[in-house]
């Protein structure tokens, strides 16, 4: 008999069909235990504080900014974050992992793969979509993960601050900010601040809901 402790899971609020599907899927796995369900995004940090789940399933479409993933990861390091999104791009998934998520998957991922990802994430193993393999292609290298300092610069870029303002806020030189910005653009696959804003746009743009 397998006496291992079930993995505790908190599920954020999703669209009805996705939410019902996740509940049914996880409830059918004897090695998973749902400790919170249909959690509104704004209440997720409180639930992570009180329930301390091993894994939290986060709705990409509810994020106001990817920085929220980093904040949740920093504040709740014992909880592994699994982000579900609509057709996430390699850039979006790499950004989620850079900010502390353990897995990033499409909401259309097959049930067995979602369960497998949750179990892997509970052990700290990173999981990305199998996009290239699904099409029979060799796996291309995705954008490199952002460094913590690049994440700081990205957050200020998202706020619309100039290079000079960012340099002052981080106590570095303007040229250093420019270098970080160039690295961010390269790693996230964008060329301009306009494209960066589109990539990290808030929910409501139709991409991640």
Tell me about this structure.
With 209 residues, this protein is an alpha/beta fold. Residues 132-143 and 200-209 have low confidence and may be disordered. The protein is 45% helix and 14% strand. Helix 1 links the parallel strand 1 (7-12) and strand 2 (32-39). Helix 7 (148-158) crosses helix 9 (174-188). It is built from ten helices and five strands. Strands 2-1-3-4-5 form a five-stranded parallel beta sheet, with helices on both faces. The chain has two domains: 7-134, Rossmann fold (3-Layer(aba) Sandwich), CATH 3.40.50.2300; 148-188, Winged helix-like DNA-binding domain superfamily/Winged helix DNA-binding domain (Arc Repressor Mutant, subunit A, Orthogonal Bundle), CATH 1.10.10.10. The protein has helices at 16-27, 44-51, 67-75, 90-98, 111-122, 131-134, 148-158, 163-170, 174-188, 193-199; strands at residues 7-12, 32-39, 55-59, 80-85, 103-106. It starts with 6 loop residues before the first strand and ends in a 10-residue tail after the last helix.
């Amino acid at each position: 008999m397998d006496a291992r402790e079930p993995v505790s899971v908190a599920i954020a609020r999703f669209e009805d069909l996705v939410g019902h599907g996740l509940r049914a899927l996880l409830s059918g796995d004897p090695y998973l235990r749902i400790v919170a369900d249909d959690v509104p995004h704004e209440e997720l940090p409180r639930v992570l504080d009180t329930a301390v789940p091993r894994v939290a399933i986060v709705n990409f479409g509810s994020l106001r900014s990817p920085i929220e993933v980093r904040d949740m990861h920093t504040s709740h390091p014992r909880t592994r974050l699994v982000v579900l999104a609509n057709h996430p791009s390699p850039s979006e998934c790499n950004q989620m992992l850079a900010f502390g998520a353990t897995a990033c998957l499409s909401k259309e991922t097959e049930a067995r793969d979602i369960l497998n990802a949750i179990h892997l994430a509970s052990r700290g193993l990173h999981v990305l979509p199998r996009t290239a393999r699904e099409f029979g292609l060799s796996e291309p290298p995705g954008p490199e993960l952002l460094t913590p300092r690049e994440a700081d610069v990205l957050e200020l870029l998202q706020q619309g601050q100039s290079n000079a303002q960012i340099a002052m806020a981080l106590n570095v030189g303007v040229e250093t900010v420019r270098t970080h910005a160039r690295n961010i653009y390269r790693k996230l696959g964008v060329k301009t601040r306009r494209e960066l804003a589109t990539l990290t746009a808030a929910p409501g743009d139709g991409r991640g809901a």
